Amino acid sequence: MQNNETQGQDPYQLAVYSTWRLSYDKLDRPARCFLQVCSLLHHEGISEEIFEKAALSKLNLEDSELQEEVTKLLKQLGKQDSGWSSWTFQKVIMHLGSHSLIEYDHQNRTYSIHPLVHHWSGTTLEENQLLMQNLILTIIALSVPMTETDEHIKYRRNLMKHITSPMALLKLEDINPLVATHIAKIYSEAGRWKETEVLVVMGMEKRKRVLGDDHLETLQSMEYLAHTYWHQGRWSDAEALDLVVLEKRRLVLGDDHPDTLKSMGNLAGTYRNQGRWKESEALKVLVVEKRKRLLGEDHPETLRSMANLAVTYRDQGQLNDAEMLEVMLMEKKKRLLGEDHPATLMGTINLAYTYREQGRLEDAEALEIMTLEKMKRVLGDDHPNTLKVMSNLAVTYWKQGRWKDAEVLQVLTMEKAKRVMGDEHHWTLDNMANLTNTYRDQGRLNDAEVLGIEVIERMKRLLGDHHPKIFNSMLSLAATYRELGRLSEAEALEAVVEENREPHNGS
Asked: What pLDDT digit, counting tens, does each position of 168-178 carry?
């Protein structure tokens, strides 16, 4: 009988696999273990940082058996009682390298395994495969920092390719709730909201069973689920959860607790997306006043609440009120943080947006060009916030009728977004949708049609069939069909949007 490793292989492959097997048999236990670990990760971009961060994590999995197995595995790779031994990890790498089973990428400081070795090494797992998959996913989750620094966002983005294999084969009920929450963070930042929702629901249900409906961790899971609905355009579902979380936090924590105020802000954001601007404004004003009283006028949370209120003013056409508030915020941030601080620069983006809505396109352009240059210098050419300014500037060019300038900037932004955030990240797709409109305005109707269809298909895979962005893209494609004289196709798309779009209560 032939085993799965060799069955159906040609003689050359059999010889190669036999050589690797001989090398594997000469490895010590830690080296074998790490090779098996790597077989469940992506074959490129494997970093020591993943294992070091997991080893140093203080998180409690509340599952003693899983915690023990993870600790046992990490100890073979360098975990010590009080820290991490990089020397132990490097000995494992050197052992594998001496048999040509792993390579080092000096530029990115990561390790890679040849795809054939990667595939073959998975066959050494045998009956331990499911356990190892769970351990790998748990190690990745333990390594995930939940703070919003640029460094941590980039780190989480690089983990996306490593969670694919274990997530594909593990059953949801086998995933630890804390692990689910941290893996959901990776999915959400990649714009993968359907996968995020599945993990968040699972974690929430487990917390309800174990901790109860009113426990603070349960409410945190419910808040995260509402956030997930919000990003999928499911405003009614988000509103229902926002209301429950707000009432429970008021009851448990009181009206003035930071978490309660956060819930009020979340509900206000949902009302805004439903077009219920007066209700949104009333809640946002209340949050601003409470934060001023509790935290002071210059606290970052107070300033963030005021920025959100300015957006609601803009939504209602109260552009002068929005401008006054945004100018005041920008001056405060310059004084408190400095002119080139990222938070100050984000404030100038908001003000430029208001100028554009006021029809002050030259003022918007000047502010966006200045902000773009500062963003490039402070954050780098490829930072997401830099790309956001580029995208906004392209919209200003588009409104000025400078379609060629808009196109050049949109193509550049789209390519950078693909490279930095991925082909199907929602922000990449937003840029593609903008480019579609620019093509149509230049009379490049065939290009607009091709790109418009691609955007809709990608958005459906990412967001489902009923996200507002999909309906907007369908209406854009319908406009292209009308200009092509294909009226029946245009009307069919418009009918689909009319039938399925969630009612909007605003004007």
From this structure: 888 888 899 89
